[in-house]
Amino acid sequence: MRERVSKQKHYMNIAREVSMRSACFRARHGAIIVKDDQIISTGYVGAPRKTKDCFERNSCLRREMGIPSGQRYELCRSVHSEQNAIINAARAGVSILGGTMYLYSEKLDDSGKSQIINALPCFICKKMIINSGIEKVIANQADGSLKEYDVSEWINDWRENDLIDDMEQYGVKTVKK
User: Fold this and answer.
1) C-alpha separations of 74 from 61, 70, 122, 128 in Å
2) Contact status, residue 97 vs residue 31, Cβ threshold 8 Å
3) 3-class DSSP state for residue 121?
4) How far is Cα 14 from Cα 32, in angstroms, rounded to an integer?
């Protein structure tokens, strides 16, 4: 008997496909925003519109500068997938208040071989997600599962602590208190 894929897996599959447009030598990231069971925006890692991306330049600025993954995002030619999904909704005049963002991420080695990783917004993207009014983030995990984040929990955590105390950060191994 044929089984129907769940809506969460369906949307994650679409986020994965969106990630294939990424113009980054280090990773593929894709984001979609869903509201009222309708995809209203997509985004992938890529240079700002009408500028050259890493593929067109055939170089990665961050690699050339020896910047480790998860650090100094301002020194990157690309806009993150989460940011692009939010920006694309704004360009189209579509409200994302109350929406759900799906994130897909995988790392690429120097040969281009991919490895699925835990998708997680950086601090800049988390701030944008909070201010955009998105309510949930659903992220792929390296083990094939999906992890759901309630954005209000990020807000409450940052209200009580500071963003640097965040238990989930790229490149940081932390244990929940």
Assistant:
1) 11, 11, 12, 15
2) no
3) coil
4) 8
